[in-house]
Write a structure and sequence with these properties.
22 strands; 28% helix; rod-shaped
């Protein structure tokens, strides 16, 4: 009797347990279904947020109208100044140096004497050659008169003419030898160094001095291949020298052959240097103007980063904030020039960090 009752009790307990678990499972499905139906979609969440933003009081910001101007992007490259013409002045004759006509650091014009070599008998040779030419002229003229009277053969007249030509040639050589005793500057420029000293013995090719043609001087840079076609001959250029000087010049040469190692092209900027104040070999940062863009001038403080990390600026269109990705074209003392905006736009000047795209704002206008 006892065992039967225990068995019935166990069966009743098991049945109740199974029924309870089934009921819990069924209820969990119903609740989960209800919860899924109640969960709003992402679009609904965004719409609700936008509705709340529109119903809030608009944020007050300051803004100004801006008009775009044509502005060239500037490519900044490091280079150095170079002299295009260096004259190694050398002797063309033989003899001992008797005078140094200039010193190191002198400024000379083309044709100025640099070194003087002893004359010796060169002046006497010129005199003798002059006399020989005079005599040859008389002989040639006499031969012509005799031929007119049939007293002279044509061959003798030709011989007299050849002798005159030879004497004239000898005179030219004698005068040139005398002139070569003075070594003269082949170009105008700055005497970097005088190599000759009084008493030195010259032979043809002996160095006398080195002259630098410093006007103009050239700021030389090497431009990457992706930018070289955007550079124009004659473009005005600013170069900041390591000495602190700001030099102005224009593009005078754009190379056609790229360097094999760097794939860059040589570009030269001619800089006026009448007083020879700019030295050769000085480091220079050259700003090369590239093709122009429609750009707005703004303060760099107005630039912000978008959600994806891009550089941009906040503008206002019909009281709604917009974000525009921009690119810096160039900089000056008044701010930065940026491209990527419409030609006419309203730029937020105060409060750009307090707003987000799509937000409604109240604009207070500023000028300037």
């Amino acid at each position: 009797m006892f065992s039967l009752s225990s068995d019935l009790a166990w069966r009743a307990t098991a049945t109740a347990t199974v029924f309870g678990l089934a009921l819990i499972w069924l209820l969990s499905g119903v609740l989960a279904a209800d919860e899924t139906q109640i969960q709003p979609s992402l679009a609904q969440v965004n719409d609700a947020a936008a509705e709340r933003a529109n119903t809030r009081r608009p944020v007050t910001i300051r803004a100004r109208r801006s008009v775009a101007f044509e502005k060239a992007r500037v490519l900044a490259l490091n280079g150095r100044t170079e002299v295009k013409h260096i004259a190694a002045v050398k002797s063309e004759t033989t003899g001992r140096v008797v005078k140094r006509n200039v010193t190191d650091g002198a400024t000379v014009s083309k044709g100025d004497p640099i070194c003087t070599v002893e004359v010796n008998d060169r002046d006497a040779r010129v005199t003798a050659a002059n006399d020989a030419v005079t005599l040859a002229k008389l002989e040639h003229e006499g031969a012509l008169r005799l031929r007119e009277n049939d007293y002279q053969r044509e061959s003798e007249v030709v011989a007299a003419k050849a002798n005159l030509s030879a004497m004239q040639h000898s005179l030219v050589l004698a005068e040139e030898a005398l002139a070569n005793t003075v070594v003269r500057a082949p170009i105008s420029g700055f005497v970097e160094r005088v190599h000759a000293n009084v008493g030195d013995f010259f032979v043809p090719g002996s160095p006398c001095a080195t002259i630098l043609d410093l006007n103009p001087i050239y700021a030389v840079v090497h431009v990457p291949e992706q930018f070289v076609d955007q550079i124009t001959l004659g473009s005005e250029v600013n170069a900041s020298l390591a000495t602190g000087r700001i030099a102005k010049g224009e593009v005078s040469f754009i190379g056609k052959q790229a360097a094999n190692s760097s794939r860059t092209f040589r570009v030269e900027v001619a800089v006026p240097n009448e007083q020879y104040e700019i030295r050769s070999g000085v480091t220079a940062e050259v700003g090369l103007p590239l093709k122009t863009h429609l750009a707005h001038q703004v303060s760099s403080a107005l630039l912000v980063l978008g959600d994806d990390g891009t550089l941009g600026i906040h503008t206002v269109n019909n009281s709604i904030v917009e974000f525009h990705q921009v690119e810096i074209v160039t900089e000056d003392s008044d701010g930065v020039w940026i491209s990527g905006l419409p030609s006419n736009v309203v730029i937020i000047t105060v409060g750009q960090d307090l707003v987000s795209p799509g937000q409604r704002v109240e604009v207070q206008w500023v000028t300037g």
